[in-house]
Amino acid sequence: MPLRGVTFNIGLFEVATDALPATLTLFDPQGRTVYSATLRAARTTIGTADLPHGIYHVVVATADGRSATRRLVLE
Question: How far apart are CA 54 and CA 75, in angstroms?
């Protein structure tokens, strides 16, 4: 599985993966991409302070076609 976990602290969330490199994409409640990055470290922290409240989807995909999706709720 390309995603070991997603943890959230106020204004930040951390993605842990053991399948590197991987692509992280964050989708807003309307399905638009609001953040995308190539993950090159086992743990990556991303700021959420500029994002409005809502339910987001975090998708981590690997070059070999594996992917995992998690929900991120910002209140």
Answer: 7
Q: Please, where are the H alpha helices in 7-74?
A: none
* Stated pTM of the model: 0.84
Taking CA 12 as the corner, what is the angle to CA 33 and CA 63, rounded to the nearest 5 degrees? 45
Q: In sequence order, which ranges of the chain are alpha helices (DSSP H)?
A: none
Q: Which domains does the chain have, with CATH numbers?
A: 5-74 (2.60.40.3080)
For residue 2, give the nearest of 23, 25, 21, 18 by alpha carbon: 18
d(CA 50, CA 33): 14
pLDDT string in tens for the chain (75-residue length): 566 767 666 788 889 888 899 999 999 999 999 999 999 999 999 999 899 999 999 999 998 999 999 999 888
Q: For residue 21, give both structure tokens.
A: 């490199």
